[in-house]
């Protein structure tokens, strides 16, 4: 959708679908973590959450939150392209930089500033199995579980 064309473009629809899926997956990760924490508190065992989406990423909630912000930037692309034809290129380039900057800033924030890295600092101290969890599970981007090599001495 743009000012000159009120119909939704395929990119806008794809961006909205990405946003909706990411929202659902972030919510799922949060619920899985809450369920795990409730069971852990009941049993008194402090271990790392490695169930559901947490098996594939140590911070799936942060990853899918970042994907939501990236989806919003994607939804803005048709209007940005339309803007390139209506204004000077410097203004449009600044807007494009702002869209990319929004996604990159959220990534930095969710990984380094308020999110994954600070959380991991405390998790290593509180959970004895967290280093093992770090060795087999990607920090931010979901991926396959890595096998650990156990060597005997």
Automatic annotation (TrEMBL):
Please name the PANTHER family in this protein's record: 3-OXO-5-ALPHA-STEROID 4-DEHYDROGENASE, STEROID 5-ALPHA REDUCTASE C-TERMINAL DOMAIN-CONTAINING PROTEIN
Q: What is the lineage of its organism?
A: Bacteria, Bacillati, Actinomycetota, Actinomycetes, Mycobacteriales
Note the InterPro entries from the entry: UstE-like
Per its record, how is this protein called by name?
A: DUF1295 domain-containing protein
Q: Keyword annotations for this protein?
A: Membrane, Transmembrane, Transmembrane helix
Which parts pass through the membrane? 6-25, 93-117
Record organism? Nocardia suismassiliense
Q: Name the Pfam families for this protein.
A: DUF1295 (PF06966)
